[in-house]
Amino acid sequence: MKVGFIGLGAMGLPMAKRVVGAGYQVLTTVHRNRAPAEELANLGAQILSTPAEVARNAETVITVLPADAELKETALGRDGLLHGFAAGKVLIDMTTATAFSMQEVEAALGKAGGRVLDAPVSGGTLAAANGTLTIMVGGDAELLEQVRPLLETMGKNVLHVGSVGQGKVVKIVNQAMAAIHLLAMAEAFALGAKCGADPNVLYEVIKTSSGYSKMMDLRLPGFLFEGTFKPGFKLDLMKKDLNLAVDSAQAKGIPLMFGSLAAQVFSAASTAGRGGEDFSAAADLLAGLAGATLECHSERSTQRG
Ligand code: NDP
Q1: In 68-123, alpha helices (H)
Q2: Closest C-alpha to 18, from 96, 123, 133
Q3: pTM of the predicted structure, to 2 decimals
Q4: 28: β partners
Q5: Does ligand 1 come within 6 angstroms of the Cβ of 62?
Q6: Residues linked to residue 25 through DSSP beta bridges, in sequence order
Q7: Do residues 72 and 101 touch, judged by C-beta distance below 8 A?
């Protein structure tokens, strides 16, 4: 099967490598950076000139783009997928975006006879490289079964969650929880640190206590404990995801109190110039507001200032 793959960033490139490694003939294109496309071409992929060309030549196209605007541009813009779409072709969009954009893309490609699956992912860059992502799929269940072997080259848990758009909904809910858990941990650990607790001790005890969150394992060692924030998952992408949650709540006319507050902390961290760092930098900023740090490798380990 010929598979188009568009969006070769922190997630897309390792995912695309797995698809190539599984023996699929992969077609890609260049946006601004040529290097990732060339890296994939060295493994056997073919570089074409535009998304439309990719759609014309592939049976299934996968997109892993930053957000709504890039998804719409790639699918519906000048030289976009729509111009190469025809009956029988399938788009699997793995971007974290809104259900609304996904449904707009589905309607346009559907008129050309194409079909769409909405399949955002969770697990980060390591899981992308190892093929152990969770993939939450919205769309026709039979179509999912047809492309399941392709998705299983990238993900360990490929779950059907409803109609097109529901994948995006489930992903946004996950992101809101992940961000709130991260900031809850930062605020509470900062309190502990200011009261003299060692963040390492807090981690050891709370990981088997009721305050536990997986965010502790994912973002204390390797990030907050070391005070290093190389992404990982970029802070500005989490800010975008939280704003998707806030926008969705506004569209439904419902409150989203903790999510909105979390969005403000991420916004402040981004304004402070940390948007390109790992999203755990927002926890560092929040702890810093209390004059604390969660770093464990120096004498600063419990208090700052
Ligand atoms: P990156 O910013 O690293 O990569 C985005 C990619 O999209 C780049 O290859 C970029 O190309 C390409 N791109 C941007 N705009 C366009 C366009 N208009 N047309 C074609 N290509 C375009 O993002 P990530 O890979 O980190 O994230 C991708 C998606 O996955 C996001 O929705 C994110 O929220 C989600 N996600 C990310 C995770 C992570 O840990 N990073 C984890 C789970 C989900 P170029 O650089 O050349 O502009």
Answers
A1: 68-76, 99-111
A2: 133
A3: 0.92
A4: 5, 47
A5: no
A6: 2
A7: yes
